[in-house]
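hey so u asked for the seq, here:
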Amino acid sequence: MKVLTYRGFIFSCFILLSLSYSSFARTDTDMQSLNLLIEQVQDKKAQLVIFKRCAAVYLTSSSTAKVRPDTAEFEKKLKGVAKFFIFLSTELGKSDEVNQDSNQIEKDIDNLYSYYLADIEKNKNADGSFADGLMQDDLPICSSIYEASKTL
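ran it, structure tokens below
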């Protein structure tokens, strides 16, 4: 019963996202924007990549939020969202179509986390703000997936 609920949830999220984010895309030399993967929403392996990247986006956001002591509560919320995406990744990884070990999923998320941190540093302006980058492209998509999940 749980598996059917998760599959329905995942399918519903991607229907909403495909309607919201199919209009534009930006490619990066190392990784493509999640906007391109959203177009492949029916592919379970693409879904897994999206969930892993969203987990890494929120882990990266939480690590940048803990810089200041007054953002500790916000950091906890971001980590909670990251755990949500890690859970989705692990559950989807168990499916017959994907069949990916949870240890490999964790390694992939760690590698993506490192990639996002490097991307942030690469795109930092002299004043400390961020000019552009893959994280800025991916965060709205991941946020939309998370927000859509709360309404299901």
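Residues 2-150 form one domain. Residues 11-30 have pLDDT under 50 and may be disordered.
lmk if thats what u needed
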